Amino acid sequence: MSSSIPVQRHSARDFSDRPVALDTLRAILTEAQLAPSWENAQPWKVYLATGKTAQHLRQSHQDLNQQGTKSWTEVVPPKDWATLPQTNITAWQQNMQQFYTANERDQFVSRQRGLFNAPAIVYLTMPKNSSAYSAYDLGAFGYGILLAATRHGVSGVPAYELVRYPDEIREAFTIPDDEAIFMGIALGYPQTDSRVNALRPGRSDLNDILQVRD
Ligand SMILES: Cc1cc2nc3c(=O)[nH]c(=O)nc-3n(C[C@H](O)[C@H](O)[C@H](O)COP(=O)(O)O)c2cc1C
């Protein structure tokens, strides 16, 4: 792929049925492996669901949601966010409320519950006994996957939703007990006519997060 293609990445949450070729997925993951990490620690492992396994996971996830099964994650998010992220989260929620009609919001939730109809799902683990630096490394790897996917014409969304029923993931793969399922990334080709895919969240003004001394 040409490196001159500008990266216009945003999350897609409604994928078509078109599968992503395994060669393409392997190329995406290989490029993402160039992510820097603490003394090249590379603390991540990747579990990739495609075909029948992805289909099974989409169905079981939908069923668990429908049954109202209590969810949990192996890496616990904070109960209270610090002011900076909480302010941005609130702005995102308000933006989403305004952007979508009630029907579109229902569609958004329904796609999420069915794992976005993703033909390929990447689950990322790291050792349970990890420091915050490994979380930094894993995040770099995850963003590497999203950027490489964009270069290959594949869309994606990193999502907490993907990992909030860890048992279904552990049933599908052989994942050692000392690894924590940290994050999931759904990959595929977006449904072009779907409003769910039209959300384009903005970013903080650079001047609000940057301090320069010359
Ligand atoms: C750790 C993490 C968890 C996320 N969880 C979800 C999720 O459960 N559902 C969802 O629709 N999007 C999820 N997202 C996607 C974010 O909402 C999205 O990246 C953010 O709003 C910025 O939008 P953009 O990716 O389109 O630029 C998550 C992103 C990250 C990094």
UniProtKB/TrEMBL annotation:
Q: Which UniProt keywords apply?
A: Flavoprotein, FMN, Oxidoreductase
Q: What residues form the membrane-spanning segments?
A: none
Q: Superkingdom, according to UniProt?
A: Bacteria
Query: Which molecular function term from Gene Ontology is one that the record holds?
Result: oxidoreductase activity
Q: Does the keyword Oxidoreductase apply?
A: yes
The family database entries (InterPro entries) matched by this protein are listed as: Nitroreductase (IPR029479), Nitroreductase-like (IPR000415), Nitroreductase/BluB (IPR050627)
Q: Which Gene3D superfamilies match?
A: NADH Oxidase (3.40.109.10)
Q: Which PANTHER family match?
A: IODOTYROSINE DEIODINASE 1 (PTHR23026:SF90), NADPH NITROREDUCTASE (PTHR23026)
What is the protein name given in its UniProt record?
Nitroreductase
